[in-house]
Amino acid sequence: MMESTPELEDGQFSEVQYFLVKDGPYHKSLSLLLFVLLFRASCLEVHPQVVGPSQPVVVTVGDDIILPCHLRPAKNVSDMTVEWARPDLNPRFVHVWRDGVELESKKHPSYKGRTSVSIDKLKHGDMSLTLSRVTLSDGGQYKCFIPGLGHSLIQLVVGAVSSPFIVSINITSRGVALQCESAGWYPEPEVLWLDGEGKLLSAGPTETVRGPDDLYTVSSRVTVEKRHSNSFTCRVQQRSINQTTETTTHISADFFTTPPSSSTNNNKSSCINKCVTALVVVFLCSLIAAFAWCYWKQSKSCYCAQQGSPHDETGHMLSAHPTPKPEHSTPARLTGRHIILS
Do the beta carbons of residue 144 and residue 127 sit within 8 Å? Predict the structure, then answer.
């Protein structure tokens, strides 16, 4: 018959332990060794580790955020030194907790009055930092550190989001041209156009401008044709901060009325150009004729003034000193010895 295992009470052996010790000294030695190992394992204290999030923490400008950090296993750290720091700053400290109080004088000036830790959570090994009124400059790598226990690095990504709006709607020969704009983004976003069925539309390149405040303004244009719903959506998104905003506009069918043909427009333009050219030519010819007539009158007046002499009936100029007529020679008569001139 098999021996039944004795009933167990608190502090007695289990079935396996009973099996090891029931048959003699050899099994008693193994049982003693097993108890020693179990006792030492139970007495060993596990070394706590500082643990933070494995993924970046994302926040938008102006919001409050909690940067997670805790001990594993949990341990009261309210009477220990807890440091939050940014290696790229000088001074590097963001928040310092020591001997049960916060050392405000140790932290960087830009963080004064904006950081805190919970005393109740510190007693349970939670050193998470609360950061208020987040700014763009708060983005970066943070170090949660307890001297003697280790540290954890937390990446904070700060973003800024803005709503887009349609700034212009123009009718062209190819359809209706839409322009969408959105200002105040960080990091730089992308712009997408979709029709009423959610299909992507082919748009021109996005224009991006970065302002002095490091925020981005984006603008995009697309030319659309008449569709079933005539609804079009401008979507602005930033994947790294998981933010998306959009606006939808409905275009009336009247906007898609076929504009006058290009040939008609060309004929009208050609006719107008010819008329303008003819008017310009007539004006220039009149101007040249008037100039020539004035020049002729002025030249004639100057010539007469310089001569200053009268003219005869035939138009020939009369001399101021007429040439004396030559005297006619009188035939000579000989009278005796003298010559008499008559």
Answer: yes
What single-letter amino acid sits at 223?
A: T
Looking at every residue in the chain, the average pLDDT score rounds to 80
Query: What gap in Å lies between CA 309 and CA 312, rounded to an integer?
Result: 10
What is the rounded distance in angstroms from the CA atom of residue 57 to the CA atom of residue 282?
77
Q: The pTM is what?
A: 0.59
Per DSSP, the residues of 140-189 read EEEEEEETTTEEEEEEEEEEB----EEEEEEEETTEEEEEEEEEEEBS--
**In this structure, what token pair is assigned to residue 40?**
């030492």
Q: In angstroms, rounded to a whole number, what is the distance separating the alpha carbons of residues 188 and 184?
A: 10
Extract the tokens encoding 174. 């190819």
Measured distance between the N- and C-terminal CA atoms of the chain, rounded to whole angstroms: 212
Distance CA 141, CA 152 (A): 10
Which residues pair with residue 70 across a beta bridge? 51, 126
Cα–chain-centroid distance for residue 117?
A: 36
Q: Is 123 helix (H, G, I), strand (E, B) or coil?
A: coil
Neighbours of 254 (CB within 10 A): 7
Task: Specify whether the backbone of 62 is left (phi greater than 0), alpha (psi in -120 to 50) or beta.
Answer: left
Determine the Cα angle at 310 with ends 307 and 314, to 5°: 115
Is residue 164 within 8 A of residue 245, CB to CB? The reply is: yes
The CA distance from 300 to 258, in Å, is 66
- For 293, the 3-state DSSP assignment is helix
275-312 per-position pLDDT tens digit? 888 888 888 888 888 888 787 777 777 666 655 555 55
CA distance 84 to 129: 8
pLDDT, tens digit, 9 for 90 and up, residues 106-148: 999 999 999 999 999 999 999 999 999 999 999 999 999 999 9
Residue 97: is its pLDDT beyond 70? Answer: yes
Instruction: Output the CA angle 62-65-67, nearest 5 degrees.
Output: 145
